Amino acid sequence: MRSSVPEKILLIADQIEEDGSVNITKLTIVKKWFAKPQRRKAFALWMARHAAGKPGKVDANAKRILNDAKKLLGSAPRHGTLSTEIDREKIGALCDRARAFNDEYVPGKWGSVRIIQCQALLLIEKSLAILLVRESLPAEAYELLATWVYSFDSRYSDTLNGPSSGRLREFVRFMFTVEALEHDAEANA
Questions:
Q1: What residue spans define the domains of the chain?
Q2: What pLDDT is stored for residue 83 in this prediction?
Q3: What is the C-alpha separation between 165 and 145, in angstroms, rounded?
Q4: What is the pTM of this model?
């Protein structure tokens, strides 16, 4: 069944383009869409593949992990199914490697601050963590989405801005695909 959440996300993308920025808390509407566990798993797999395929400029160690992620995640079904069948052992090892790469912490005013050397590996780590747990929460998928669409710009506070709009539109295309596959599955049942 088609939900109204994708249209609300498109309105947020439009508002970013019109106003320059939008408060990140507006994205909490996606928690409603992520209420179905299979959507969270499908998004996590999609996000991990996306991050592995578009890492940007990275060092040789990160590149090796990203190449391994592409090999491992590329073998799973991509389109026409909501299947998220994975080799839990291999996915777990890859998640550990991605986490270890970004495992530097420095003291901060309110506690330790994690230093992220490779954003793509952070996204893969968060994605694979969702795939590995038996029952993830909608908030975990929301946090993964927020991490991906957030674009730091010192002119704004913690807001969605600039590239966030395009990423939200890409996410909406994913949402439409998932909803269409769900509809087809219901129709064939």
A1: 5-188
A2: 57
A3: 13
A4: 0.87
